[in-house]
Amino acid sequence: LRLGREIFETRELLANLFNIKNPMNLIFTFNCTESLNIAIKGILEKGDHVITTSMEHNSVLRPIKAMERQGVEITIVKGDSAGRINPKDIEKSIKKNTKLIITTHISNLTGTIMPIEEIGKITKKKGIYFLVDAAQSAGVYPIDVEKMNIDMLAFPGHKGLLGPQGTGGLYIREGLDVRELSQGGTGS
C-alpha cells in the first residue's frame, strides 16, 4: 500500500514538473532507451515516415533503423556545424505519410539546445506526433509538454532527476494509442 502511494506521488511530482495534466499518462521504465524504444516501436508501422535529426543518440537512431527494415521510411535532418537544427528543414521534410518527428532536447555531444517549442508548433499544425528525448534535459531545463506540444517525452531517472540507476519514464499524451511491446503481470 505504501509503495503504491509513493509510486503515485512520484507520478504526480513528474506531472507537475513537466505540466502533464494526468499523472496516469506516465509509465515507468528501466531507462530512457527503453522509453524511446516503446515510443518508436509502439507508434510506427510499415508505410509510415519518421523524421529525426543528425544530432540524435543511438537510443533513437538504432530503433528507427530497425523500423526501417520493417518498411518505415526515415528522413534524417542535418544540423549545422554547431549542431543546430533549423525547424524549417524539418517542416520541408514532411510527407503525406509522416507520422512521427523525433528530436533530442539537448545534444549529449555538443550541448546544443534544440528548438523543440518551434518544432512542436509544426507538429501540431501538421497533425504529426512529436517525441522528445529528454535524456540530457529532464530535471535540468524547463519542459512543458502542453506549451511545447510534446506527445511523448522519454527521460531517464538517474541524471537530472537525481534518481537511482535503472529508472526512466515515458509520458504519452492522452488519446495516443501506443502498441504494447510486452504483456503480462499486474499493475499499471
What do these coordinates show?
39% of the residues are buried. The chain contains five helices and seven strands, in the order αβαβαβαβαβββ. The chain is 30% helix and 19% strand. It has 188 residues and is an alpha/beta fold.
In short:
The chain is of the alpha/beta class.
Instruction: Calculate the terminal CA-CA distance, rounded to whole Å.
Output: 14 Å
Rg from alpha-carbon coordinates? 16 Å
What proportion strand? 15-25%
Please report the total strand number as a whole number.
Answer: 7
pLDDT < 50 runs, ≥5 residues: none
Based on Cα principal axes, name the global outline: globular
What is the element string, with H for helices and E for strands? HEHEHEHEHEEE
In DSSP terms, counting alpha (H) and pi (I) runs of 4 or more, how many helices? 5
Structure keywords:
single chain, 188 residues, seven-stranded mixed beta sheet, 30% helix
Which helices and strands appear, and what pairs or packs with what?
Elements: H1 2-18, E1 26-29, H2 32-43, E2 49-53, H3 58-68, E3 73-77, H4 87-92, E4 98-104, H5 116-126, E5 129-133, E6 152-156, E7 168-172
Parallel strand pairs: 2-3, 2-4, 4-5, 5-6
Antiparallel strand pairs: 1-7, 6-7
Helix pairs in contact: 2-3
